[in-house]
Amino acid sequence: MAVYGVLRGRSYARALNDAGHCRFPQERQALASELIQGALRWQHRHAELMRHLMERPRPASRLGALLSVGLFQLRRTRVPAHAAVNSCVAAAKELLSPAQARLVNAVLRRYLRESSRLESAADRRPQGRFSHPGWMIRSFRAAWPGHWESILRAGNRKPPLWLRVHQGRISREAYRASMLNPQAWNCSLPQDLPNGLQIDPPKPVSRLPGFSAGMVSVQDAGAQLAVPLLGIQPRMRVLDACAAPGGKTAQLLETCPGMKQLVALDCDAGRLDRLGENLDRLGLKANIRLGDALQPRDWWDGQPFDRILIDAPCSATGVIRRHPDIKHLRRAADIARFARLQSRLLQSLWPLLTTGGRLLYSVCSVLPEETAQLIDGFLRENRGQAREVRRLDGSSRGWALPLSDHGCQILPGRRCADGHFNALLEKTAGTS
Ligand SMILES: C[S@@+](CC[C@H](N)C(=O)[O-])C[C@H]1O[C@@H](n2cnc3c(N)ncnc32)[C@H](O)[C@@H]1O
C-alpha cells in the first residue's frame, strides 16, 4: 500500500517503509518498486480512466491505489492480463474486502474490453493526457511556451542510469572495457561529459561492478554538469553548502584533489551520515559539518571561501521522471516557499565568498521562481557587488539552453538528462 501512502501525502521513503518493502526478498523489492513507481507516474492518467470506468471513482483511496497498480500492469508492462487482474483481485481480498475485490475484477476487465475508447476519453483532459497535476501543467506551460509538452512527456519516461567514474581510479573507457560485459550492459559515453556513462536500460546499483570498491557513483548527467562550472583550482577553499548525500561533494574531490579545504555542510544529520558513507566508499575526505547554512556564525571559521556551491533544496520539478511521487507531494504554494529559502541561502552565504570568488547556484527545478527570476532578484539587490559569469562551460553547451535572462537550463529529457539549472556568480566587490 505504498502507493496509497504517497497519495495520502507520505514521503516515498516513509510509504515504502510503512508497507514493509525492505522485508521483501531483493527480487521482489525490485518488482514492487517498479509497480509502485509506475502507478505513481501514471496516477493522473489512471484517475482519468477511473472517472470513465466507475460511478464513484476515488483515485486517492486504497481501492484507487490498487486499481492504479492494476492499470499500470495492464497498460505498460508485459505481465499477462489475466495474471495482472488475478494478482490485484487477490491483493484486494487480502487488504480490502470481498466486495472491493469484485469491483477490482469488474473495473480491470472492463478496461481490457474498452481500452481504446477509454484511452481516447482520457486524452481529452490535460491531466489525463499528460499525467501530471493541473497546477504543474499550467506552470510548465507558462514558463516554457515552446517546451512544456516535452517537459511533461519527459516527466513520464523511465530514466536511464547515469554513472560518474572516479577519475582518480579508472577512466570511463577502462571501466567499460574491463567491468561491463557488453552483452549485459548497454552503455554509451557522451563525448562532452568527461566522466559520465549512460546505462540504458538501467539496472540495480547493487549489480554494478566496482561500485562498492568506489570506482563509480550514480549521478545523472544533468547533475554532473554543475561542478565543472566552478573552475576549481588547487589550493582553493571551497564550501559545498547543501552537500548531502554528497554526489557533488565527491565529484568536487575527484576532479580537484588539490583543494586546500572542502567544507561539506548540511543541516540534516541522517543525510550527512550518507554523505560520510559515500565518501568512505570512494576513499575521499572532506571537512564534514552539521549546520544551518542560514546561520554561518555557528559553523564558519571566518576564512573566506574562493568557491561556494549552493545545491539548494527545490521543487525538484526537473527530476520528476526519477521521483514520480513529486507529482503527488508538491503543491503550487511550495514554489514560493522554496524560492524564499533559496533567496535566504544566497544572501546568507554571499558574505562568506572572497572578492573575485565565484558562487554556483544550482537547482533541479525548471520553474523561473526558483531559477532565472531568483538570480535576477539577487543581482538587483547586490548591484555593484555581484555579476553573473555568462560563459557556458564547454561541456554544458551541448546540454543546456542558454537563457536570455540568467543562468542556463537543462530541460528534463534533453539528451536523456534530468532537468537542472545553474547560474555562476562572481563577487566583484566586498560586502560591506
Ligand atoms: C538538493 S539536496 C543536495 C544534494 C547534494 N548536493 C548532492 O549532490 O548529493 C539539498 C540539501 O540541502 C540541505 N539543506 C536544506 N536547507 C539547508 C540549510 N538551511 N542548511 C544546510 N543544508 C540545508 C538538505 O538537507 C539537502 O541535503
SSE arrangement:
Layout: H1 2-7, H2 12-18, H3 26-41, H4 43-53, H5 62-76, H6 81-95, H7 98-122, H8 126-130, H9 134-143, H10 148-155, E1 161-165, H11 172-179, E2 187-188, E3 196-199, E4 216-218, H12 221-224, E5 237-240, H13 247-255, E6 261-266, H14 269-282, E7 287-290, E8 305-311, H15 326-329, H16 334-349, E9 353-363, H17 372-381, E10 386-388, H18 394-397, E11 401-402, E12 408-410, E13 420-427
Parallel strand pairs: 5-6, 5-8, 6-7, 8-9
Antiparallel strand pairs: 1-3, 1-4, 2-3, 9-13, 10-13, 11-12, 12-13
Helix pairs in contact: 3-5, 4-5, 4-7, 5-6, 5-7, 6-7, 9-10
Bound molecules: S-adenosylmethionine (SAM).
How would you explain this protein's 3D organization?
This protein is of the alpha/beta class and 432 residues long. It has 3 domains: 2-131, N-utilizing Substance Protein B Homolog, Chain A (Orthogonal Bundle); 161-219, Sun protein, domain 3 (Alpha-Beta Plaits); 222-427, Rossmann fold. It contains 18 helices and 13 strands. It has helices at 2-7, 12-18, 26-41, 43-53, 62-76, 81-95, 98-122, 126-130, 134-143, 148-155, 172-179, 221-224, 247-255, 269-282, 326-329, 334-349, 372-381, 394-397, and strands at residues 161-165, 187-188, 196-199, 216-218, 237-240, 261-266, 287-290, 305-311, 353-363, 386-388, 401-402, 408-410, 420-427. The strands form 2 sheets. Strands 5, 6, 7, 8, 9, 10, 11, 12 and 13 form a 9-stranded mixed β-sheet that branches. 44% of the residues are buried. Bound molecules: S-adenosylmethionine. S-adenosylmethionine binds at residues 242-248, 265-268, 271, 292-294, 311, 313.
